[in-house]
Task: inverse folding
């Protein structure tokens, strides 16, 4: 007790003394990742964003990260540790960190938190996410045009709105160009487990899927697709190294501009709790190079769709769209509002199977 | 639901691949337990084999060398257990558990620089006529070499234990180490050899995971396969043939539940995912219901420390 107050006193004195030079202290920015940086998927891209922050600010920032942090009590421990060790801004990059982020943020009101893909905010917690469904609309279109067996395999992680939205968006646009297309969905209940993802990929291929989509973070499904000689879409990062002939394209999450902007905001003292949900237009959702296997006309259509989404001329969820049970969700010409999209917990018409609870 | 979309031939072919890592680990552990040693560190040896095999395969570009490396890694780790339990007479259960924790840790350490690396691919068997046979071709003649090695190992262990002098001595050590010692057999040396063999097999199973089934390196990628292998040895009541049955049953349910999900089966996914474990537990309960029979099958000296002075 005595020691801590002594240290605190000393720190205060030092702080006062160095007030003039305070600006020279680097801003400490922490990142919490759910998988390893080397997953070449989700966490890899977040780390690229971290490197961009270092690049942009040089000596003025100091970044740290902790990888493979399980969602739950461990995450809370890691965040607390980061806050205690003087971080000014902490990015927590998985949906499952939501409650931990809120809990830790409450204890450290002076530390700014940024939680990816969640919906709970407070004075010092912002949320941010990307409109991945815009990207999935494009790959759904390509898949619908290119599948020969009319079976598309989909490896899903957890039944949360973000994943369900992705399935709906991809299916909707595949179905539009190919009424016979069928989606087979396997829920693996993990973000990162290459063995499970590989098994799921194999099961889907055995059932006739000739195109794979994934909403998990490892490159294992892409590797399996490459080995069996079918087509696949990468997820979160460019996975071309793992599927040089299989990858049609990949949805890339580009967090770098956002991370740089938010770090700048903390430096300027203009940081406020916000909710960001950016798509293709600001560049948060990007695409890897389209494969030569995509026929020229399909490629042109896909690129047109990207342009239309960018310009706002087209919204991937534009009616008429019915829910799975046949009831009307969106009437002709109606566009889905962000609230419904953010909490999406239903399949659209045509998808088979049930969403697990 | 569309059950017709599940092709039984592909299902059987897939289950053989899914079961191979567990089969390899279980057949090794069978030999260890037959020699009277209970090594609960299978999980740790598997994961160590997975990273050692992966690292060797990546560095040399040769998957065959990778498998050898995996076996060597598993065996080396098991010898730590061997020295601790056979010479220093430490408790086998505690040491085995520690070995699992140690294996998970050391593999993560070795694997730091191998995350996201692609291993050289292993080729599948392709016999001119046999591989193209309908039904039998995909099931029997289109796998990678390790599937055949695993089946070969089962046959080898079965024959070794049943019909050879070495097998007889090994079983004698496992049933009554004092009597075996009195007859002049080197109990500790025989057990060490069995432990190393078990470790090598577990390492091979791990390498199969990281080189063929996934193929990638990830921390903790064995995800409990070692524990299933241990359960399968009990399930098989220490008989080699039944280890094969048990491993294929487990692998079969694992693959089947994924296929049922993909086919849109109206069963909650949670039940499907837990089914392989549930059925393993269920069978274990049934097997051990008759206490006298279960006890009859287990090696009598299983898990007991041996010292020549006692």
Result:
């Amino acid at each position: 007790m005595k020691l801590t107050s002594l240290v605190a006193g000393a720190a205060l004195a030092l702080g006062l003394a160095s007030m003039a030079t305070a600006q020279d202290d680097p801003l400490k920015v922490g990142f919490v990742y759910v998988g390893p940086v080397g997953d070449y998927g989700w966490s890899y891209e977040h780390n690229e964003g971290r490197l961009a922050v270092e690049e942009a600010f040089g000596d003025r920032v100091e970044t740290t990260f902790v990888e493979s942090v399980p969602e739950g009590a461990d995450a809370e421990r890691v965040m607390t540790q980061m806050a205690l060790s003087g971080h000014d801004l902490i990015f927590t990059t998985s949906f499952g960190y939501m409650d931990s982020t809120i809990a830790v943020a409450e204890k450290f009101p002076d530390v700014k938190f940024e939680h990816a893909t969640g919906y709970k905010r407070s004075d010092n917690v912002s949320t941010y996410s990307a409109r991945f469904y815009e990207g999935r609309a494009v790959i759904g279109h390509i898949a619908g045009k290119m599948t020969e067996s009319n079976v598309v395999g989909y490896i899903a992680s957890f039944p949360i709105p973000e994943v369900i939205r992705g399935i709906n968006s991809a299916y909707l646009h595949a179905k539009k160009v190919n009424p016979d297309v069928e989606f087979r969905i396997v829920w693996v209940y993990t973000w990162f487990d290459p063995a499970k993802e590989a098994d799921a990929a194999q099961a889907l291929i055995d059932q006739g899927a000739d195109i794979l989509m994934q909403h998990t973070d490892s490159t294992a499904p892409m590797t399996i697709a490459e080995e069996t000689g079918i087509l696949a879409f990468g997820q979160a990062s460019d996975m071309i190294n793992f599927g040089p002939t299989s990858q049609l394209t990949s949805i890339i999450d580009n967090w770098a501009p956002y991370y740089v902007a938010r770090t700048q905001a903390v430096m300027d003292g203009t940081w406020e709790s916000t909710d960001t949900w950016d798509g293709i237009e600001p560049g948060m959702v990007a695409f890897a190079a389209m494969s030569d296997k995509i026929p020229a006309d399909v490629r042109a259509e896909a690129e047109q769709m990207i342009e239309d989404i960018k310009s706002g001329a087209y919204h991937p969820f534009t009616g008429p769209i019915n829910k799975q049970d046949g009831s009307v969700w969106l009437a002709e010409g109606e566009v889905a509002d962000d609230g419904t999209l953010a909490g999406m917990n239903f399949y659209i018409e045509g998808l088979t199977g049930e969403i697990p609870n | 639901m569309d059950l017709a979309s599940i092709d039984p031939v592909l299902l059987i072919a897939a289950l053989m691949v899914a079961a191979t890592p567990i089969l390899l680990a279980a057949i090794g552990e069978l030999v260890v337990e037959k020699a009277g040693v209970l090594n609960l560190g299978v999980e740790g040896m598997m994961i160590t084999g997975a990273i050692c095999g992966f690292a060797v395969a990546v560095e040399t570009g040769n998957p065959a060398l990778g498998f050898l490396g995996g076996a060597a890694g598993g065996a080396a780790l098991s010898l730590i257990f061997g020295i601790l339990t056979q010479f220093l007479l430490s408790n086998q259960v505690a040491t085995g558990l520690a070995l699992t924790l140690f294996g998970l840790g050391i593999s993560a350490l070795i694997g730091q620089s191998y995350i996201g690396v692609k291993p050289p691919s292993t080729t599948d068997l392709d016999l001119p006529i046999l591989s193209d046979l309908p039904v039998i071709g995909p099931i029997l003649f289109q796998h990678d070499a390790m599937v055949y090695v695993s089946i070969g190992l089962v046959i080898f262990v079965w024959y070794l234990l049943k019909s050879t002098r070495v097998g007889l001595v090994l079983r004698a050590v496992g049933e009554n180490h004092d009597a075996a010692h009195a007859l002049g057999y080197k109990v500790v040396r025989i057990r060490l050899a069995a432990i190393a063999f078990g470790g090598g097999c577990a390492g091979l199973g791990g390498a199969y995971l990281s080189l063929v089934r996934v193929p990638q390196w990830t921390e903790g990628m064995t995800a409990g396969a070692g524990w299933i292998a241990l359960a399968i040895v009990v399930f098989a009541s220490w008989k080699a043939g039944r280890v094969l049955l048990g491993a294929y049953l487990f692998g079969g349910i694992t693959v089947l539940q994924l296929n049922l999900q993909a086919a849109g089966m109206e069963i909650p996914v949670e039940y499907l995912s837990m089914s392989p474990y549930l059925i393993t537990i269920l069978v274990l309960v049934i097997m051990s219901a008759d206490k006298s029979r279960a006890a009859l099958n287990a090696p009598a000296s299983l898990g007991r420390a041996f010292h020549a002075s006692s």
Summary: Chain A has eleven helices and 14 strands. The longest helix of chain A spans residues 161-177. Residues 151 and 209 of chain A are 5 Å apart (CA to CA).
